[in-house]
Specification:
Helices cover 49% and strands 12% of the residues. By secondary structure, it is α/β, with parallel strands linked by helices. The protein folds into two domains: 172 residues, Rossmann fold, CATH 3.40.50; 235 residues, Orthogonal Bundle (N-(1-d-carboxylethyl)-l-norvaline Dehydrogenase, domain 2), CATH 1.10.1040. Strand 10 and strand 11 form a beta hairpin. It is globular, with a radius of gyration of 22 Å.
């Protein structure tokens, strides 16, 4: 199996195409950007240079168009990365063309964030299917090191090994291998929590839900603010796919709230349209009041339990903060969401990923969230089991094993656990 020395990016003018190309160029790999027009490919290169912040020589990225340069570029490529629109039909059309033009040993990958890898390469040649897999980089790839590698049942194991080595060693990615399942691991876990919070906001309010699930609970950005950043349309596409494709204990929590669907139809998409759950008015952040459909300043009084948790987090005591969460009478809603996160994330071990460490790493390095095992260790495996049972949530086998052997679950000695929690 040959090594990866030259790469072609299709859809290079988009965010993921440009960002992925910047990562490859920073690794010193000559990369060709292709788009529908040369001008769009060149715009993608400018975007990559900006994202790279001086990490590579712009000469490493050449540009072209599909019409003029696809055949020549594919003839020289060791890896072709497809980053066109997240649409099954569009991607399959592209792969049909690549299949006719690519050398037999060229690896082809998609940056899809959740489409079936096997379906994307169905009806392609046997050689294409053997050399096809998913590389899910998180946006922006130049900042987020987490990366999911997804083989389908027909992918050659040697191809997986070559790509894994390239991503981990040449590109400095934190690679997690996932099965070919809906939305893979990170998005399946992450968007379950994000959408659950969006559902709860209808009853408890936008400002309160983001205050409740703020950075002190172990995430870089509060959930509804995250949806605004991602884009309501992107969020809807991911949870709609999960709601249609999965039928597990979280099925109901993947249902997009009706108020979000209505606002998306009216053109509300989050930050890119000037506002979503939140918008800035001058220097003040205003939160959407779902009852009145108006924005109001997002300053709420801080509950006592939340003040106590933030105090502990400010002094690096995340376990003490979790003790408050477990025992405070008015922290029931926070317990509901965090216990659901623990149960669902670690429940995917054996189905979507091989080990608890895989889930922990993709949530840490892909979402910048405290991994579920960090929360289990802070609460205590035995106590976590009791709380999950009381909440009528499935108890993952790996937590039972940790409790039985009286051992910690999070096994990353070089990672500072308290670093996932911010008092802000």
């Amino acid at each position: 199996m040959k090594s990866i020395r030259k790469i072609v990016v299709l859809g290079a003018n988009g965010a993921m195409g440009a960002g992925s190309g910047a990562v490859f160029a920073a690794a010193g790999i000559p990369t060709t950007f292709l788009a529908r027009t040369l001008e769009k490919a060149e715009a993608g290169r400018e975007r990559a240079v900006t994202l790279g912040k001086g990490a590579f020589d712009r000469a490493l990225i050449s540009c072209g168009s599909y019409a003029s340069d696809l055949g020549h570029a594919l003839a020289e490529a060791d890896l072709v990365l497809e980053a066109v629109a997240e649409d099954l039909v569009t991607k399959r059309e592209i792969f049909a063309v690549i299949d006719r033009l690519r050398p037999q040993e060229t690896i082809v990958a998609t940056v899809s964030s959740g489409l079936s890898i096997a379906t994307l390469c169905a009806d392609r040649s046997a050689a294409f299917r053997r050399h096809f897999l998913g590389i899910h980089l998180f946006n922006p790839p130049t900042v987020i090191r987490g990366c999911e590698l997804i083989a389908h049942p027909g992918t050659d194991p040697g191809v997986v090994a070559v790509v894994r080595d390239f991503l981990a060693n040449a590109c400095n990615r934190e690679v997690v291998e996932c099965t070919d399942s809906p939305a893979f691991a990170g998005n399946r876990v992450g968007f379950k929590l994000l959408n659950q919070v969006a559902q709860l906001a209808e009853e408890h309010g936008v400002a309160y839900m983001d205050q409740l699930l703020g950075p002190y609970t172990g995430r870089a950005m509060a959930p509804l603010a995250t949806i605004d950043l991602v884009g309501w349309d992107v969020h809807a596409a991911i949870v709609d796919n999960l709601h249609a494709s999965t039928h597990d204990v979280a099925h109901a929590q993947f249902a997009l709230p009706a108020y979000m669907r209505a606002k998306i139809a009216a053109g509300v998409l989050g930050r890119k349209t000037g506002g979503g759950f939140f918008k800035r008015e001058g220097k003040v952040s205003h939160a959407l009041d779902l009852a009145s459909d108006a924005y109001a300043p997002a300053d709420l009084p801080t509950p006592v339990f939340m003040e106590a948790m933030k105090h502990h987090v400010a002094h690096g005591r995340h376990a003490a903060a979790m003790e408050v969460m477990c025992s405070a009478e008015d922290a029931g809603l926070l317990r509901e969401v965090l216990l659901g996160y623990i149960s669902y994330a670690l429940g995917l071990v054996g189905e979507v990923v091989e080990r608890p460490r895989d889930i922990d790493r993709i949530m840490a390095f892909g979402f910048a969230w405290a991994p579920p095992s960090v929360l289990v260790d802070a609460i205590g495996p035995g106590r976590t089991i009791i709380m999950l049972e009381q909440a009528k949530l499935p108890v993952p086998l790996c937590i039972i094993q940790a409790a039985s052997h009286q051992r910690a679950m999070f096994d990353e000695p070089s990672v500072d656990r308290s670093g996932f929690f911010k008092a802000a």
